[in-house]
Design a protein that fits this description.
Layout lengths: L1 H16 L9 H4 L4 H19 L4 H20 L6 H21 L4 H22 L3 H7 L4 H5 L3 H22 L4 H21 L5 H25 L2
Length: 231
């Protein structure tokens, strides 16, 4: 579904991508691939997702149409919604909701805390990612949180990161995770704090991409904390 979502996004954005320096060489824009090729692969991925879904419980089946709807809506949000990163987070977060339902066969308070944390996290890292295209997006009328937040990007990212850590901390308390989990959250907070300090100054596209990629490590740190916290 993640790959299917990327294809939906590239199909929806191909009229914009040619006007953005970073994306103007994408296969659909350059003509290396045609829309029918993308649609064929999209259909294959969706059929594969349905096949995998057939092994899961009825509750996960009931949640699945929402996932498809979110994946289809997100690519168009940047046309009318000033924080499309919020919808990205909801789309990614819903995968976590479905995973929880698949394993536990119920939805609990922790499910929604992790969902909320995922939404906040997506706003954080995708706002940083959007800085790369900020000037081009403003010219062509594409909306993003990086444009909306403007000179207050560092503050908005900082507040959103704080909410993310709060929701993760609450989930840890509810599930009685050990000290290692909270140490991991502390390390993630330090790394994001470092990013926020950098965001107070002018950030180049190259630096924005480097900061974006650091969130892979933030994810690894939190995941390691979850494992170690259950020991």
């Amino acid at each position: 579904m993640r790959s299917a979502g990327v294809i939906m996004n590239d199909l929806a954005d191909r009229s914009f991508d040619g006007q953005v320096e970073r994306t103007r060489h994408r296969p659909l824009v350059s003509g290396q691939l045609r829309p029918r090729h993308a649609l064929g692969l999209l259909l294959s991925l969706l059929l594969g997702a349905v096949a995998l879904l057939s092994f899961l419980n009825p509750l996960t089946w009931e949640l699945s149409p929402v996932a498809l709807l979110l994946a289809g809506i997100y690519p168009f949000c940047k046309r009318f919604f000033h924080i499309p990163q919020l919808m990205l987070g909801v789309s990614f977060g819903w995968g976590g909701v479905m995973a929880w339902a698949a394993v536990r066969n119920q939805l609990e308070m922790t499910t929604w805390l992790l969902f909320a944390a995922t939404v906040c996290w997506a706003i954080v890292y995708d706002t940083i990612y959007a800085i790369q295209d900020k000037n081009d997006d403003m010219k062509i009328g594409v909306k993003s949180s990086a444009i909306l937040f403007g000179s207050y990007t560092w503050l908005c990212v900082g507040l959103t990161a704080s909410f993310m850590l709060f929701f993760l901390s609450l989930a840890g308390e509810i599930n009685q995770l050990g000290a290692a989990y909270f140490v991991a959250l502390g390390l993630a907070a330090i790394l994001m704090g470092y990013q926020i300090v950098l965001l107070r100054s002018e950030v180049s596209a190259d630096l924005a991409f480097k900061l974006f990629k650091q969130h892979c490590w933030i994810g690894i740190i939190v995941l390691a904390g979850i494992f170690l916290g259950t020991l």
